[in-house]
């Protein structure tokens, strides 16, 4: 027996290794990013595709799997980076895909490897995180299933993913130039709303160049979701709008909300789902209506007064023809300016009672981020605490790990604005001038941090906007919402510390506040910003550093820009 021990050990090791491979797979994708002409809403324009597609290929994995994406940049004259939205990147902060924060951009002609573990089941997305490329079509779905043998707290027959988007005809470059110019040129409302990459622009609109718009192009035929009568469907709905807050509904059907940003919620029923850029939800819908006809699926822009046509898709009852239009007028949806129902939905989202992540009952640090619109040398900016954020040329992760502290400002941004107690959020500030900075917040590792997002009036009288804020590298507990100005001594007494939902993206409603809590336990450098493309471009963001000394050796592939050029050998 002793003679056979080495062989037995080898066999046992082989069996163990085989089981590990079975349990945690490698999902390998090879993508090429390039510009192509597409007609998403019947209007022909250049869009960014992945392997010829927009939305890009869906990633499907299982909890614990390693995802590898080899990304070739064939944009010819443009850099690129991709963020894996909702993936916490535990142990791989350099794979977060945030240009200027965790990596240098991928240069034209280069191939970059993203490799990370998907550590939690749920509904996620990916999208460009360089400039304003996301709105050019570079995005897609990322779905993570539970490990074998585990079950979810709800049942369904089929599983589908849908991404909602808005669509501009001007390029991201034209928009960025306008946002940076003096006088300021706002991007305006989108021309259409897309459901899974398809929308419909009115080609008869005056001023459209001949040949630019073709209403019969099959690329802009409505997206079709085919269902079998009597079956229940899980719809994984994500929003990656550049600007629009949306209401989504399916004519004549109720939806049961069961998941938000990868976390199970206490189920609740809605007729229409309000969804903000960066959010994901799972809803259950049963095909229990008259099966002899099709129904409309409708996406409508809310929160801003607008004339954007509703996005339409077809909820197709098999065996009706998928292109058969419903016999009814599409639902008109909620009034765009109704804030109360949107706040009520936010308040309704609580953790499923069997899946509560215990929330720390106290925090070690409170940071109040006053969302303001300002001016700097004539340029219009978005700011927090009167500081408009800008990205450095050398990514923070590399600067901090390699002690290149001269590459960004060392004076940290304020935890609260001077004069917060007397600041009137309901009027245009008497002094709208702000400063610009690329400094960051340094958080003590493993401490509990409260962030209060406080909304205020913009530069326009009687105007406050909805801002969806997204935190990289973390989920946070949403412990409270409120209207008006946050009261530091009273409002925390009303926090939900029993069953708050965990999310990675959350709205702050007009003239209101949102309180979130998280533990700074993920070594790295993480962006926190408004997920509206133009707002982040205009400075509505921040960066948190935590446990940088615990980050392992950085891969050389993320270097090559700014002061990191010294680390690249010719």
UniProtKB/TrEMBL annotation:
Plastocyanin-like domain residues: 38-145, 161-318, 422-547
Name the coenzymes or cofactors required.
Cu cation
Keyword Repeat listed? The answer is yes
Which Gene Ontology terms cover its molecular function?
copper ion binding; L-ascorbate oxidase activity
InterPro entries linked: Cu-oxidase-like_N (IPR011707), Cu-oxidase_2nd (IPR001117), Cu-oxidase_C (IPR011706), Cu-oxidase_fam (IPR045087), Cu_oxidase_CS (IPR033138), Cu_oxidase_Cu_BS (IPR002355), Cupredoxin (IPR008972), CuRO_3_AAO (IPR034267)
Which GO CC annotations does the UniProt entry carry? extracellular region
Signal sequence span is 1-24
Location relative to the cell: Secreted
Which keywords label this protein?
Copper, Disulfide bond, Glycoprotein, Metal-binding, Oxidoreductase, Repeat, Secreted, Signal
Enzyme type, top EC level: oxidoreductase
**Name of a matching Pfam family:** Cu-oxidase_3
Q: Which PANTHER family match?
A: L-ASCORBATE OXIDASE (PTHR11709:SF218), MULTI-COPPER OXIDASE (PTHR11709)
| Protein name listed in UniProt | L-ascorbate oxidase
């Amino acid at each position: 027996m002793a003679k056979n021990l080495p062989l037995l050990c080898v066999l046992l090791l082989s069996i163990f290794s085989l089981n590990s491979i079975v349990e945690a797979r490698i999902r390998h994708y090879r993508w090429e990013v390039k510009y192509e002409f597409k007609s998403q809403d019947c209007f022909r324009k250049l869009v960014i595709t992945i392997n010829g597609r927009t939305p890009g290929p869906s990633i499907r994995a299982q909890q614990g799997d390693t995802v590898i994406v080899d990304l070739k940049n064939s944009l010819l004259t443009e850099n690129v980076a991709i963020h894996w939205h909702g993936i916490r990147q535990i142990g791989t902060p350099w794979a977060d895909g945030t240009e200027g924060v965790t990596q240098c951009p991928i240069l034209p002609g280069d191939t970059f490897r993203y490799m990370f573990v998907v550590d939690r089941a749920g509904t996620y997305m990916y999208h460009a995180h360089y400039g304003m490329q996301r709105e050019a079509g570079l995005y897609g779905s990322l779905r993570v299933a539970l490990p074998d043998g585990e079950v979810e707290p709800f049942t369904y027959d089929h599983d589908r993913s849908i991404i909602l988007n808005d669509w501009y005809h001007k390029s991201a470059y034209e928009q960025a130039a306008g946002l940076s110019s003096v006088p300021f040129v706002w991007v305006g409302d989108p021309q259409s709303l897309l459901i899974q990459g398809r929308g419909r622009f009115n080609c008869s609109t005056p001023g459209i160049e001949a040949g630019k718009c073709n209403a019969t192009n099959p690329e802009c035929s409505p997206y079709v979701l085919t269902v079998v009568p009597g079956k229940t469907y899980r719809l994984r709905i994500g929003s990656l709008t550049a600007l629009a807050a949306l209401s989504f509904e399916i004519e004549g059907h109720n939806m049961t909300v069961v998941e938000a940003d990868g976390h199970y919620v206490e189920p609740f029923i809605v007729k229409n789902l309000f969804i903000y850029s960066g959010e994901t939800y799972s809803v259950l819908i049963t095909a229990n209506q008259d099966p002899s006809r099709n129904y409309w699926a409708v996406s409508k822009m809310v929160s801003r007064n607008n004339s954007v046509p509703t996005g339409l898709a077809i909820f197709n009852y098999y065996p009706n023809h998928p292109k058969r239009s419903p016999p009814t007028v599409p639902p008109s949806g909620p009034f765009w300016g109704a804030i109360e129902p949107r706040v009520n939905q936010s308040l309704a989202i609580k953790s499923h009672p069997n899946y509560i992540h215990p929330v720390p009952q106290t925090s070690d640090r409170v940071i109040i981020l006053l969302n303001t619109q300002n001016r700097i040398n004539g340029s219009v900016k978005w700011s927090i605490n009167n500081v408009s954020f800008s990205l450095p040329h050398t990514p923070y992760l590399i600067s901090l790990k390699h002690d290149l502290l001269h590459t960004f400002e060392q004076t940290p941004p304020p935890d609260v604005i001077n004069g917060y107690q007397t600041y009137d959020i309901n009027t245009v500030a008497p002094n709208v001038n702000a400063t610009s900075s690329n400094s960051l917040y340094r958080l003590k590792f493993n401490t509990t941090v409260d962030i209060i997002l406080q909304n205020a009036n913009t530069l326009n009288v009687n105007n406050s906007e909805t801002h969806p804020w997204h935190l990289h590298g973390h989920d946070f507990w949403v412990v409270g919402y409120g209207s008006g100005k946050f009261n530091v001594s009273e409002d925390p007494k009303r926090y939900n510390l029993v069953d708050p939902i965990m999310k990675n993206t959350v709205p702050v409603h007009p003239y209101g506040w949102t309180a979130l809590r998280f533990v700074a336990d993920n070594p790295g450098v993480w962006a926190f910003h408004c997920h509206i493309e133009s707002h982040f471009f205009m400075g509505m963001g921040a960066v948190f550093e935590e446990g940088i000394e615990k980050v392992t050796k950085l891969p050389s592939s993320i270097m090559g820009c700014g002061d990191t050029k010294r680390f690249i050998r010719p």
